[in-house]
Amino acid sequence: MCCYILVEGRSKKAFKTWLAERPDAWRDQVEVVAMDGFTGFKTATAEELPDAVAVMDPFHVVRLAGDALDKCRRRVQLAINGHRGRKDDPLYRARRTLHTGAGLLTDNQIDRLTALFATEEHVEVEATWGIYQRMIADYREEDRRRGRELVVQLIDSISTGVPKTLTEVITLGRTLKKRAADVPAYFDRPGTSNGPTEATADSNTSAAAHSGSGT
């Protein structure tokens, strides 16, 4: 059994207060809470539902990696050309292709990326793109145990020893290291998602938590 929760006000206090007001019998049944990367949800859950497993929704993990890729692309674009992306700039033209899973690339898209990464100035974008693609591939791994191992390895690999020039990867590594238990927890609870709350939430709605009991 599962339920989807929408709580007004995106803050730890709002979610914590809502949880504290639930009956003990209800809270005792909650086994899993799915959430995005907002730390307020994590701490509220830990304090009010200490026995529940926090799971960071894969959608949000991949989006963090995608955001890092976008930020890197924009930074390199500005450093090379001195302006934000324009329609004739190679990095700007490839922005959607960069977000396509490697296994879904067409021959034309592969050729575009090959040409893009042949330029030494784009090496930081290529490295960040590689991290993004690894994240996607890890979640698509059919063997859940192997997928879990790969995600843990990826988080470890970008948490230390990353070249200083890859600033976006460093930030991503720090963020995911803080959630090092919540990210791989998904593989122990496949299908856990806060997607339905994301689909119905508006900009003024905060908590998107999917709690399940007996799952």
UniProtKB/TrEMBL annotation:
**Where is the sequence biased in composition, kind Polar residues?**
191-208
Xref: InterPro entries: Transpos_ISL3, Transposase_DDE
Record domain Transposase IS204/IS1001/IS1096/IS1165 DDE: where: 6-200
Location of the region described as Disordered in the Swiss-Prot/TrEMBL record: 186-215
Recorded hits in PANTHER family, A to Z, give:
TRANSPOSASE FOR INSERTION SEQUENCE ELEMENT IS1557
Report what the protein is called.
Transposase
- Origin organism is Actinopolymorpha pittospori
Q: What is the lineage of its organism?
A: Bacteria, Bacillati, Actinomycetota, Actinomycetes, Propionibacteriales
